[in-house]
Design a protein that fits this description.
The structure is a single chain. The protein is an alpha+beta fold. The chain has two domains: 94 residues, Phosphorylase Kinase, domain 1 (2-Layer Sandwich), CATH 3.30.200.20; 194 residues, Alpha-Beta Complex (Aminoglycoside 3'-phosphotransferase, Chain: A, domain 2), CATH 3.90.1200.10. It has eleven helices and nine strands. The strands form three sheets. It has a five-stranded antiparallel sheet with strand order 1-2-3-5-4, sandwiched between helices. A hairpin with a 4-residue loop joins strand 4 and strand 5. It starts with 5 loop residues before the first helix and ends with a helix.
Length: 300
Protein backbone atom coordinates (compact mmCIF):
# COMPACT_ATOMS: atom_id res chain seq x y z
CA UNK A 1 0.00 0.00 0.00
CA UNK A 2 1.40 3.44 -0.85
CA UNK A 3 2.38 5.27 2.30
CA UNK A 4 0.71 8.56 3.12
CA UNK A 5 3.01 11.56 3.02
CA UNK A 6 3.96 12.75 6.48
CA UNK A 7 1.83 15.88 6.29
CA UNK A 8 -1.18 13.94 5.03
CA UNK A 9 -0.71 11.31 7.73
CA UNK A 10 -0.64 13.98 10.43
CA UNK A 11 -3.74 15.69 9.02
CA UNK A 12 -5.58 12.36 8.88
CA UNK A 13 -4.57 11.52 12.45
CA UNK A 14 -5.80 14.93 13.64
CA UNK A 15 -9.14 14.51 11.85
CA UNK A 16 -9.62 11.02 13.28
CA UNK A 17 -8.85 12.35 16.75
CA UNK A 18 -11.57 14.98 16.27
CA UNK A 19 -14.14 12.24 15.66
CA UNK A 20 -12.97 10.30 18.72
CA UNK A 21 -10.48 7.87 17.17
CA UNK A 22 -7.21 8.83 18.79
CA UNK A 23 -4.18 6.73 17.95
CA UNK A 24 -5.84 5.17 14.91
CA UNK A 25 -3.53 3.72 12.29
CA UNK A 26 -4.02 2.98 8.60
CA UNK A 27 -4.28 -0.73 7.84
CA UNK A 28 -4.95 -0.79 4.10
CA UNK A 29 -5.86 1.29 1.08
CA UNK A 30 -9.18 -0.18 -0.08
CA UNK A 31 -9.95 2.01 -3.09
CA UNK A 32 -8.58 5.11 -4.74
CA UNK A 33 -10.35 7.22 -7.36
CA UNK A 34 -7.81 9.97 -8.18
CA UNK A 35 -9.25 13.43 -7.88
CA UNK A 36 -12.45 12.16 -6.29
CA UNK A 37 -12.12 9.94 -3.21
CA UNK A 38 -9.97 7.49 -1.32
CA UNK A 39 -11.11 4.70 1.01
CA UNK A 40 -8.92 3.43 3.85
CA UNK A 41 -9.24 0.69 6.44
CA UNK A 42 -8.04 1.88 9.83
CA UNK A 43 -7.59 0.32 13.25
CA UNK A 44 -8.18 1.91 16.64
CA UNK A 45 -7.30 -0.57 19.34
CA UNK A 46 -8.97 -3.85 18.37
CA UNK A 47 -11.70 -2.17 16.33
CA UNK A 48 -11.69 -1.65 12.59
CA UNK A 49 -13.27 1.22 10.66
CA UNK A 50 -13.61 2.50 7.11
CA UNK A 51 -12.52 6.06 6.32
CA UNK A 52 -13.62 7.79 3.13
CA UNK A 53 -11.70 10.91 2.13
CA UNK A 54 -13.24 13.15 -0.52
CA UNK A 55 -11.99 15.94 -2.74
CA UNK A 56 -15.26 17.79 -2.09
CA UNK A 57 -16.48 18.36 1.49
CA UNK A 58 -20.05 18.73 0.18
CA UNK A 59 -19.97 15.02 -0.67
CA UNK A 60 -19.24 14.23 2.97
CA UNK A 61 -22.29 16.17 4.10
CA UNK A 62 -24.46 14.49 1.47
CA UNK A 63 -23.36 10.98 2.46
CA UNK A 64 -23.74 11.82 6.13
CA UNK A 65 -27.34 12.82 5.39
CA UNK A 66 -27.93 9.47 3.65
CA UNK A 67 -26.72 7.54 6.69
CA UNK A 68 -28.78 9.70 9.02
CA UNK A 69 -32.05 9.32 7.14
CA UNK A 70 -31.51 5.57 6.76
CA UNK A 71 -30.88 5.43 10.50
CA UNK A 72 -34.19 7.20 11.02
CA UNK A 73 -35.86 4.53 8.89
CA UNK A 74 -34.33 1.76 11.00
CA UNK A 75 -31.81 0.78 8.33
CA UNK A 76 -28.57 1.71 10.11
CA UNK A 77 -28.71 -0.38 13.28
CA UNK A 78 -25.69 -2.54 12.49
CA UNK A 79 -27.99 -5.58 12.22
CA UNK A 80 -29.10 -6.59 8.75
CA UNK A 81 -30.62 -5.15 6.74
CA UNK A 82 -28.44 -2.14 7.46
CA UNK A 83 -25.93 0.36 6.20
CA UNK A 84 -22.70 0.75 8.20
CA UNK A 85 -23.14 2.73 11.39
CA UNK A 86 -21.80 6.25 11.06
CA UNK A 87 -18.91 6.87 13.48
CA UNK A 88 -18.01 10.43 12.66
CA UNK A 89 -17.74 13.21 10.08
CA UNK A 90 -15.10 15.92 9.71
CA UNK A 91 -15.87 18.48 7.01
CA UNK A 92 -12.53 20.28 7.43
CA UNK A 93 -10.75 17.11 6.29
CA UNK A 94 -13.65 16.05 3.99
CA UNK A 95 -13.72 12.76 5.83
CA UNK A 96 -16.41 10.26 6.86
CA UNK A 97 -15.88 7.26 9.17
CA UNK A 98 -18.12 4.20 9.39
CA UNK A 99 -17.90 0.82 11.03
CA UNK A 100 -16.23 -1.99 9.09
CA UNK A 101 -18.26 -5.14 8.55
CA UNK A 102 -16.82 -8.38 9.88
CA UNK A 103 -18.77 -10.48 7.37
CA UNK A 104 -17.78 -11.08 3.74
CA UNK A 105 -19.16 -9.40 0.61
CA UNK A 106 -21.62 -11.64 -1.18
CA UNK A 107 -19.17 -11.83 -4.09
CA UNK A 108 -17.34 -14.34 -1.88
CA UNK A 109 -20.54 -16.32 -1.41
CA UNK A 110 -20.98 -16.49 -5.16
CA UNK A 111 -17.37 -17.59 -5.68
CA UNK A 112 -17.74 -20.46 -3.24
CA UNK A 113 -21.09 -21.59 -4.61
CA UNK A 114 -23.47 -20.13 -2.00
CA UNK A 115 -25.44 -18.49 -4.80
CA UNK A 116 -28.91 -18.79 -3.32
CA UNK A 117 -27.91 -17.06 -0.10
CA UNK A 118 -26.18 -14.30 -2.05
CA UNK A 119 -29.30 -13.68 -4.12
CA UNK A 120 -31.59 -13.72 -1.09
CA UNK A 121 -29.42 -11.24 0.82
CA UNK A 122 -29.48 -8.78 -2.09
CA UNK A 123 -33.25 -9.20 -2.31
CA UNK A 124 -33.67 -8.70 1.44
CA UNK A 125 -32.04 -5.28 1.19
CA UNK A 126 -34.11 -4.24 -1.81
CA UNK A 127 -37.31 -5.27 -0.04
CA UNK A 128 -36.37 -3.41 3.17
CA UNK A 129 -35.45 -0.24 1.25
CA UNK A 130 -38.26 -0.37 -1.30
CA UNK A 131 -40.49 2.35 0.15
CA UNK A 132 -39.40 4.01 3.42
CA UNK A 133 -40.29 7.45 2.04
CA UNK A 134 -36.80 9.00 1.88
CA UNK A 135 -36.56 11.94 -0.50
CA UNK A 136 -32.82 12.27 -1.02
CA UNK A 137 -30.74 12.31 -4.17
CA UNK A 138 -30.95 13.70 -7.68
CA UNK A 139 -33.93 12.39 -9.66
CA UNK A 140 -33.25 9.32 -11.77
CA UNK A 141 -36.58 8.57 -13.34
CA UNK A 142 -36.35 7.43 -16.98
CA UNK A 143 -36.35 10.95 -18.43
CA UNK A 144 -33.39 11.97 -16.24
CA UNK A 145 -31.66 8.63 -16.73
CA UNK A 146 -31.62 9.15 -20.49
CA UNK A 147 -29.26 12.11 -20.06
CA UNK A 148 -26.77 9.92 -18.21
CA UNK A 149 -27.17 7.04 -20.64
CA UNK A 150 -26.35 9.42 -23.49
CA UNK A 151 -23.05 10.23 -21.77
CA UNK A 152 -22.30 6.49 -21.64
CA UNK A 153 -22.93 6.31 -25.38
CA UNK A 154 -20.60 9.25 -26.05
CA UNK A 155 -17.83 7.61 -24.00
CA UNK A 156 -18.19 4.37 -25.94
CA UNK A 157 -18.31 6.19 -29.29
CA UNK A 158 -15.15 8.14 -28.52
CA UNK A 159 -13.32 4.85 -27.95
CA UNK A 160 -14.81 2.77 -30.76
CA UNK A 161 -17.16 4.23 -33.35
CA UNK A 162 -18.86 0.97 -34.30
CA UNK A 163 -19.61 0.09 -30.68
CA UNK A 164 -20.78 3.66 -30.12
CA UNK A 165 -23.22 3.30 -33.00
CA UNK A 166 -24.66 0.14 -31.48
CA UNK A 167 -24.90 1.74 -28.04
CA UNK A 168 -26.57 4.79 -29.62
CA UNK A 169 -29.20 2.56 -31.20
CA UNK A 170 -29.97 1.12 -27.74
CA UNK A 171 -30.31 4.67 -26.40
CA UNK A 172 -32.76 5.49 -29.19
CA UNK A 173 -34.89 2.46 -28.35
CA UNK A 174 -34.89 3.40 -24.66
CA UNK A 175 -35.85 6.98 -25.52
CA UNK A 176 -38.70 5.74 -27.70
CA UNK A 177 -40.05 3.34 -25.10
CA UNK A 178 -39.91 5.19 -21.75
CA UNK A 179 -41.79 3.29 -19.03
CA UNK A 180 -43.94 5.06 -16.42
CA UNK A 181 -41.68 6.54 -13.70
CA UNK A 182 -43.01 4.44 -10.81
CA UNK A 183 -42.83 5.17 -7.09
CA UNK A 184 -39.67 7.17 -6.31
CA UNK A 185 -37.50 6.78 -3.21
CA UNK A 186 -33.86 6.75 -2.11
CA UNK A 187 -31.85 4.28 -4.18
CA UNK A 188 -28.27 3.09 -3.84
CA UNK A 189 -27.40 3.84 -7.46
CA UNK A 190 -24.57 1.30 -7.79
CA UNK A 191 -26.20 -1.79 -6.32
CA UNK A 192 -23.48 -4.33 -7.12
CA UNK A 193 -22.84 -7.74 -5.59
CA UNK A 194 -19.61 -6.34 -4.13
CA UNK A 195 -21.53 -3.67 -2.20
CA UNK A 196 -23.68 -6.17 -0.27
CA UNK A 197 -22.23 -8.00 2.74
CA UNK A 198 -23.37 -11.08 4.63
CA UNK A 199 -23.71 -10.04 8.28
CA UNK A 200 -25.14 -13.37 9.39
CA UNK A 201 -28.48 -11.86 10.39
CA UNK A 202 -29.04 -10.10 7.05
CA UNK A 203 -27.39 -7.83 4.48
CA UNK A 204 -25.19 -4.82 5.03
CA UNK A 205 -24.85 -2.36 2.13
CA UNK A 206 -21.83 -0.09 1.63
CA UNK A 207 -20.65 2.64 -0.78
CA UNK A 208 -23.55 5.07 -1.17
CA UNK A 209 -21.59 7.57 -3.27
CA UNK A 210 -23.99 7.25 -6.23
CA UNK A 211 -27.25 7.58 -4.27
CA UNK A 212 -30.20 8.97 -6.16
CA UNK A 213 -33.98 9.27 -6.18
CA UNK A 214 -35.85 6.84 -8.41
CA UNK A 215 -38.00 3.74 -8.71
CA UNK A 216 -36.96 0.45 -7.14
CA UNK A 217 -35.97 -0.81 -10.61
CA UNK A 218 -32.95 1.54 -10.54
CA UNK A 219 -31.28 -0.84 -8.09
CA UNK A 220 -33.00 -4.02 -9.28
CA UNK A 221 -31.94 -3.32 -12.86
CA UNK A 222 -28.36 -2.67 -11.81
CA UNK A 223 -28.21 -5.91 -9.84
CA UNK A 224 -29.81 -7.87 -12.68
CA UNK A 225 -27.07 -6.62 -15.04
CA UNK A 226 -24.36 -8.04 -12.77
CA UNK A 227 -24.66 -11.50 -14.32
CA UNK A 228 -23.55 -10.10 -17.69
CA UNK A 229 -20.76 -8.15 -16.05
CA UNK A 230 -19.43 -11.29 -14.37
CA UNK A 231 -19.59 -13.12 -17.70
CA UNK A 232 -16.98 -10.73 -19.12
CA UNK A 233 -14.99 -10.00 -15.95
CA UNK A 234 -15.11 -13.29 -14.02
CA UNK A 235 -16.04 -15.95 -16.56
CA UNK A 236 -15.00 -18.75 -14.22
CA UNK A 237 -17.84 -17.72 -11.88
CA UNK A 238 -20.35 -16.58 -14.49
CA UNK A 239 -22.71 -19.51 -13.93
CA UNK A 240 -22.73 -18.93 -10.18
CA UNK A 241 -23.43 -15.22 -10.65
CA UNK A 242 -26.29 -16.02 -13.02
CA UNK A 243 -27.78 -18.33 -10.40
CA UNK A 244 -27.48 -15.67 -7.66
CA UNK A 245 -29.16 -13.05 -9.87
CA UNK A 246 -31.92 -15.49 -10.81
CA UNK A 247 -32.65 -16.06 -7.12
CA UNK A 248 -32.57 -12.32 -6.49
CA UNK A 249 -35.06 -11.63 -9.28
CA UNK A 250 -37.36 -14.40 -8.12
CA UNK A 251 -37.36 -12.97 -4.59
CA UNK A 252 -38.21 -9.42 -5.73
CA UNK A 253 -40.61 -10.33 -8.53
CA UNK A 254 -43.58 -8.83 -6.70
CA UNK A 255 -41.73 -5.52 -6.15
CA UNK A 256 -40.67 -4.68 -9.68
CA UNK A 257 -42.37 -3.78 -12.94
CA UNK A 258 -40.93 -6.07 -15.68
CA UNK A 259 -40.80 -3.37 -18.36
CA UNK A 260 -39.15 -0.84 -16.05
CA UNK A 261 -36.70 -3.54 -14.86
CA UNK A 262 -35.63 -4.31 -18.44
CA UNK A 263 -35.26 -0.58 -19.17
CA UNK A 264 -32.94 0.07 -16.23
CA UNK A 265 -31.06 -3.17 -16.85
CA UNK A 266 -30.23 -1.99 -20.37
CA UNK A 267 -29.07 1.33 -18.91
CA UNK A 268 -26.79 -0.49 -16.46
CA UNK A 269 -25.30 -2.64 -19.22
CA UNK A 270 -24.36 0.48 -21.18
CA UNK A 271 -22.85 1.93 -18.00
CA UNK A 272 -20.63 -1.12 -17.60
CA UNK A 273 -19.61 -0.90 -21.27
CA UNK A 274 -18.72 2.78 -20.85
CA UNK A 275 -16.47 1.92 -17.89
CA UNK A 276 -14.51 -0.39 -20.16
CA UNK A 277 -14.39 2.19 -22.95
CA UNK A 278 -13.01 4.82 -20.58
CA UNK A 279 -10.34 2.62 -18.97
CA UNK A 280 -9.57 0.38 -21.98
CA UNK A 281 -8.02 -2.65 -20.27
CA UNK A 282 -6.71 -5.48 -22.44
CA UNK A 283 -9.53 -7.02 -24.44
CA UNK A 284 -11.96 -4.28 -23.46
CA UNK A 285 -13.63 -3.99 -26.86
CA UNK A 286 -14.70 -7.64 -26.92
CA UNK A 287 -16.11 -7.37 -23.40
CA UNK A 288 -17.87 -4.08 -24.18
CA UNK A 289 -19.38 -5.59 -27.32
CA UNK A 290 -20.75 -8.46 -25.23
CA UNK A 291 -22.37 -6.05 -22.76
CA UNK A 292 -23.82 -3.92 -25.54
CA UNK A 293 -25.16 -7.07 -27.16
CA UNK A 294 -26.99 -7.92 -23.94
CA UNK A 295 -28.37 -4.37 -23.83
CA UNK A 296 -29.59 -4.79 -27.41
CA UNK A 297 -31.46 -7.95 -26.48
CA UNK A 298 -32.95 -6.47 -23.31
CA UNK A 299 -34.16 -3.33 -25.07
CA UNK A 300 -35.47 -5.05 -28.20
Amino acid sequence: MPALASGHHDALAAALARVGLRGARTVALLKHHPGSRCTLAIAAGTDRYVVKLFADAAKVLALSAVHQVLAGAGLASGRGPTVPRLIGVDTDAALLVTEMYAGPPITELVERGECDRAGRLAAQWLRAAAAPGLTLGHPYDPSHALEEIHRYVCTIESAAGELGGRAGAVWERLAADIPPPGYSDLRHGSFYLSHVFDLGDGPGVIDWDSFRQGPVEVDAGMMSAMAARWTVRRPQHAGAAQRAIAVFLDEVGDLVDPARLRWYRAAALLKFASYLARRRPDGWAVSAASLIGDAEMVSA
